[in-house]
Amino acid sequence: MNRGRAFGRAVFALVWKDLLAELRSLEVISAMLVFALTVILVFNFALELTPRLRAELSSGVLWVSLAFSGTLGLNRSLGQEKDRGCLDGLLLAPVDRLAIFFGKALANWLFMLLCLVILLPVLSVLYDPRLLQAGVWGVALLGSLGYVVVGTLLASMAVQARTRDVLLPILLFPVLLPALVASVKASSGFLLGLPGNEISPWLIVLIVYDLIFLALALFVFDTILEE
Amino acid sequence: MRKPFGLKILDGVTLLAFAVAVALVFFYAPLEAQMGAVQKVFYFHVAAGWTGMLGFVVAAVTSALYLITRNPRWDGFSVSGVEIGLVFMLINIVSGSIWAYPTWNTWWTWDVRLTTATIMELIYLAYGLLRQGVDDPERRRRFAAVYALLGFVSVPITFVSIRLFNSIHPVVIGAGGEMPTMAFTPAMQVAFFGSLIAFSFIFVDLFWHRLLLANWAERVDALKARFEDVEGGMK
Amino acid sequence: MGVIEVHRLTRRFGLRTVLNGVELTVQAGEFVALLGPNGAGKTTLLRILASLMRPTMGRVMLAGCELPRQAAAARQQLGFVSHLPLLYGNLSAEQNLWFYGQLYGLQDYRRRAAEVLRLVGLERRSGDAVRTFSRGMQQRLAVARAILHDPQVLLLDEPHTGLDQDACAMLDAVLRRVTAEGRTVLMTSHDLVRVQALAGRFDVLSRGKICASAHADALGPGGLPGFYQQALEEEQ
Q1: Closest partner residue to B119 among A166, A177, A212, by Cβ?
Q2: Disulfide-capable partner of A11 in A70, A103, B104, B152 (CB 3.0 to 4.6 Å)?
Q3: Paired strand residues for C157
Q4: Which residue of C11, C12, C15, C206 to mutate against B (max B Cβ within 10 Å)?
Q5: How many domains in chain A?
Q6: Whole-model pTM above 0.80?
Q7: Can you tell me whether residue C24 is helix, strand or coil?
Q8: Would you call C58 helix, strand, or coil by DSSP?
Q9: In chain B, where the domains are located
């Protein structure tokens, strides 16, 4: 299975490369975190929440700020490849195009999870301590996975357009909506301690979304990178 | 560059069909007991929604065909489908709003179909912006096709998730539940199918027109390119 | 059979025809300079050879592999240097080379990386972030990256762009060292003076076709500009 090993090695190299580069500059994560925290603060003042309302809205606030800051991260992450011509470097190498997608998506996912590791505790202090529980983390994993799969696909297109920065959120959010809704509802379900059978439909929607778009990405990514 | 004969006939038939549909809706179908005159919007609202949906489906299928065959003609079909769908979906959304106001005293209801229609409209618009933002024509076609597919696949999931949302959260203000379906007398059925058929004709008619437009635009571009070549060749 | 063989290569962008039936053959070990005015299609030709772009029509063979069908196999045998560095600024030189080494599946990456760094004269800066490098150093590192996997063919797209005289001289020294190992090189350039000292053969691309070709010995020292002018005039 030589091709398999080459594939795995390429994906690992891509993820490691992104992590190394990020470690030196913290470009992606800092943009995402600062933006997310700002959004959270704005919500606090804009919505004038009573403690009870705050608890109920906290998962909504979490996912909205994540969704918006995620676009910054995606644009940075894929912009880096495009700007110094590095995408060419990747395409020149004898690696499967799909490995490029997986590597990028995986790296983006890790960045998002890193942000969550900081955001969730902050939110739990500012909004609702019940946010820090396994169920919410689980939803965060699934939701962010769907986000980066679709986001990496669309960002790969958006960075090649003239209107790059504006385009990504416009392309992403309508398509992402079901995953967003499901993530919010599932998170708040866990938060409010709702019974399992009320949370599970949302989890199913999320899983179905992730699977369908993962499958679609496999078919479609090649065409995005062609010239 | 002349309009094909078949299209001229279709234009006539479409106008006729539309006139008949209007007549049916306003003069043949009875006034609905509860909602009164505003209910008549319903006929056009649903027909427009159906047409909007059709445009989307056509765009998705032809996008897939473009990606497989790389024949630019399919891309022309996709663009036409999206543009027409955009307009009809807008009619659907606005008419839904017009219907909602006298009925529930609110301009907007989070009815699952209306909300999904709005999201579809946003995807259409994003499609347009994507095309605008990519300069290279071949890349533009490819990216647009990919996005049309992604958008199309997301819509059913969106529908399901919003329906799930609404079933858990019956919003008390105005509606939030489904748009009520009313009792259909046979006369209303006739008007309903009449407008459905008329709108389908309108769809095909406009679609054909739009395709022609795309063809002519391409021919103009080709002539322009040849002209520029000749000019530029004189170094 | 040449290492690079191009027959009737045509490439269109929408309605514009950029390459119009290009014929080109490069034998093993040759250093060919591809000259031509702006917009002649030099970069397009090179990108097709580098498997980054597909031809509209025609046949392209590189190192025995047909492009684009056997592009994956061809990639192992080619290195590409463009005027963009294709390097990650936030990583060090060594980390960049490690990354590409992984992509090319190099087994003894460490030894090879040290080797190429020495070849391009950057062994003392291997741990520094690439964004601290001058443009000349970045280009030299780009060459190191391109030959890391020891490819048969080296393609260079106007590599001297943006370099001052000293950097150019250093790059030329690197190129000479690299090609002494018997590699096949195809380089596009605007700089006739520079190129005359490097290449063994000169082909002129104009209006999408190769319109002239000459060997260095046939031209004699300083004969290139004249040959180039004449080739372009004849094209008119």
Answers
A1: A177
A2: A103
A3: C188
A4: C15
A5: 1
A6: yes
A7: strand
A8: strand
A9: 5-30+38-218
Chain B interface, best mutation among A147, A177, A226, A227, by max B CB count within 10 A: A177
* Token pair in block for residue A114: 């890193």
Q: Are the beta carbons of A209 and B160 separated by less than 8 Å?
A: no
> How does pLDDT run across C178-223, given as a tens digit for each residue?
888 788 999 998 888 888 888 889 999 988 888 888 888 888 777 8
Domains in chain C, CATH or no CATH each: 1-77+153-164+183-236 (3.40.50.300)
Q: Which amino acid is at B235?
A: K
B127 CA to centre of own chain: 13
H/E stretch holding C66 reads strand C65-67
Sheet holding C31-35, edge to edge: C78-81, C153-157, C184-189, C31-35, C201-206, C209-215
ipTM for the whole complex:
0.90
Burial C58-94, CB ≥16 within 10 A → b, else e:
bebbbbebebbeebbbbbbbbbbbbbbbbbbbbbbbb
Closest CA to A128 of A186, A59, A64, A66: A59
Q: Where are the alpha helices (DSSP H) in chain C?
A: 42-49, 71-75, 93-103, 109-119, 135-147, 165-180, 192-198, 216-219, 224-235
Phi, psi (5° rounding) for residue A133?
-145, 160
Q: What is the number of alpha carbons within 13 Å of residue A113 lying toward its C-beta? A: 14
